[in-house]
Design a protein that fits this description.
Layout lengths: L2 E5 L6 H12 L2 E3 L1 H11 L3 H5 L7 H20 L16 H7 L12 H18 L2 E4 L3 H4 L6 E7 L2 H12 L3 H23 L11 E4 L5 H15 L2
Parallel strand pairs: 1-3, 1-4, 2-3, 4-5
Helix pairs in contact: 1-10, 2-4, 2-6, 5-9, 8-9
Length: 233
């Protein structure tokens, strides 16, 4: 009953790779559902985690509305599994991470840190107990750092590769993609450091790290699927 966590900066393809691994190993794919369940436990609407009090520029606002819609649709569905469609929660707007890290001044900042982390921890442990899951990001590798039958995978890629991924996938202009990649990565680092006092790209937090500038998502998925049989036993 393996559990695989996949973490990496935006543009590394964590969601695509995670879906491939889940399909190959017949595991549940968990992306948006993680925050959906955490919001349910806290008793806060999913939109609260996305709400922004600060004015944001055009592309951030567009992404914010898209992600909020997807999250709320997932919450209303009440399904136990994660649908295999759409862009993943790796596209959370930078200001959302900043709010959670206590820097953005948004609605999410009003959530008590202890309550928030307790909810995230419960979701991660519940998923681990059920097993058979691929979890995308959200600090799951930190929460389940010493959990049995669990494989933690980190992804990395050169900036140019990540920017090009957003241009191809999200149809951004190059400057727009560069800004989004830089801001979201900084916000992600701040978020992870606030709650776990670590840097998300440190290799010691993973069983292995894959350079997506050197392989295709399909190859990465095959490597992870093979490793899961060895490292989760």
């Amino acid at each position: 009953m393996p559990v695989i966590t996949i973490n990496g900066p935006i543009g590394c393809g964590a969601v695509t790779i995670g879906q491939m691994v889940a399909e190959e190993l017949n595991l549940n794919f968990v992306d948006r559902l993680f925050f959906t369940e955490a919001a349910r436990i806290v008793g806060t609407p999913v939109g609260t985690l996305i709400a922004k009090e600060q004015r944001v520029d055009r592309f951030r606002d567009r992404l914010g509305r898209f992600v909020q819609t997807m999250l709320e649709r997932s919450a209303m569905s009440g399904v136990s599994g994660e649908p295999y469609f759409g862009r993943g929660i790796e596209n959370l707007p930078p200001e959302t991470y900043m709010d959670l890290a206590g820097e953005g001044g948004g609605v999410a900042q009003k959530l008590d840190d202890k309550v928030f982390i307790e909810a995230m921890t419960k979701v991660a442990h519940d998923l681990h107990e059920k097993g058979n899951a691929v979890i995308i990001g959200r600090g799951a590798n930190q929460i389940l750092a010493d959990a049995s039958h669990t494989l933690h995978v980190g992804l990395l890629a050169p900036m140019e590769v990540r920017v090009q991924t957003l241009i191809d996938r999200e149809h951004f202009e190059r400057e727009e993609a560069e800004i989004h990649v830089e801001e979201l990565e900084r916000a992600r680092e701040d978020f992870i450091h606030k709650f776990w006092k670590v840097h998300p790209s440190e290799a010691r937090h993973y069983h292995m790290m894959l350079n997506m500038g050197k392989m295709t998502p399909k190859t990465a998925a095959e490597v992870i699927a093979h490793a899961a049989g060895d490292l989760t036993s």
